[in-house]
Amino acid sequence: xxxxxxxxxxxxxxxxxxxxxxxxxxxxxxxxxxxxxxxxHPFYTGNEKIMDTAGRVERFNKRRAATAKVKK
Length: 72
What we know:
alpha+beta, Large ribosomal subunit protein bL31
């Protein structure tokens, strides 16, 4: 490796999540702010939320029901 061209690697970089969780990871920057982590992500917590914007879920279910009637 060439000298003095690589960024300094920090072993204990503080990664702060929007939910308040703090993790220490290795990185080339001194502080990381993240929006979602393993303590608040629905896949890891098991709390899945469906965010229905503009009634898209209802429209999908309505079209699916209409298609099922046609197939019968």
